[in-house]
Design a protein that fits this description.
Order of helices and strands: HEHEHEHEEEHEEEHEHEEHHE
Largest sheet: 6 strands, mixed
Shape: globular
Number of helices: 9
Distance between the termini: 50 Å
Oligomer: single chain
Strand order of the largest sheet: 2-1-3-12-4-13
Helix content: 25-40%
């Protein structure tokens, strides 16, 4: 017993020392898959001396404001076109440091089994932010529903629609409120994280679904001043661990796709 006690004490001290020396960072996420994936990342990062605390935000606007203000050290919720738009509009000094997952956006309906069944003059809700609203318009263009002006890039708006044969009425709503709009419109475009929160299946339920390939891969963002700090590499490497990829594939069954 006299030999085992020093060994036990040394082990306890080693664990305490590792915990005491761990670097703590706060990461902003939206509820749902982003938060669930980071929960899977946490124990992997902890083994590398990085303690992750998740801060959930209910919309797409506040996480970048909080990051820019230094209230959190990183966020994981957005794609590059959205980040670029926020930086251009608000002057944020925020940079992408690693790719995460892709969420193909879907169009859902409680009234129609196919998009072709939507009557002339039907109401379609789309997110009111330029990136996600633009994604939906590009999806509808690619499916032959509407035509857009040439050169609109990744952020077309309803003002860029040049042909709308079915005279669809586009209603812009906050992305987080899109599931609630389903009862009031013929179809609603809903981001995957909000669709899963509302009990929708992002693989089986959409009447239209975005091609998973494209520019809308999500990312981890940090302040530009922090991008070369050691904890950033630890965070990205932990996220890109094989165990996390397996978790995403098993947990979300195609609704969320690993993009690294």
């Amino acid at each position: 017993m006299s030999f085992r006690l020093p060994l036990i004490l040394s082990t306890v001290l080693a664990v305490w020392s590792a915990a005491a020396s761990a670097e703590t960072i706060k990461i902003g996420v939206t509820p749902g898959p982003h938060a669930q994936i980071l929960e899977a990342v946490k124990p992997i990062a902890a083994r590398q001396g990085l303690d992750i605390q998740l801060i959930e935000f209910s919309d797409y606007v506040v996480p970048n404001a909080a990051l820019d203000a230094g209230e959190i050290q990183a966020n994981s919720f957005q794609n590059q076109p959205y980040l670029d738009n926020q930086k251009a509009d608000r002057g944020y000094k925020i940079e992408a440091v690693g790719l995460t997952v892709n969420f193909p956006i879907g169009v859902y309906s409680k009234k129609h089994k196919a998009f072709a069944d939507i009557p002339e003059g039907g109401k379609v809700s789309i997110p009111n932010d330029p990136t996600n609203g633009g994604r939906v318009l590009l999806l509808l263009r690619d499916k032959g529903v509407i035509k857009l002006k040439d050169g609109t890039g990744f952020k077309p708006t309803v003002l860029d629609i040049t042909e709308n044969p079915k005279k669809l009425k586009f209603i812009e709503v906050d992305a987080a409120q899109a599931p609630r709009a389903l009862d009031d419109v013929d179809a609603a475009a809903i981001n995957t994280n909000y669709a899963t929160q509302a009990g929708l299946d992002p693989v089986k339920d959409p009447i239209l679904r975005e091609d998973p390939k494209g520019p809308y891969v999500n990312l981890i963002a940090v302040r530009a001043a922090d991008k070369d700090k050691p904890w950033v590499k630890t965070l990205v490497d932990s996220y890109h661990a094989p165990e996390v990829k397996e978790f995403v594939l098993t947990k979300f069954k195609g609704a969320v796709l690993p993009s690294w």
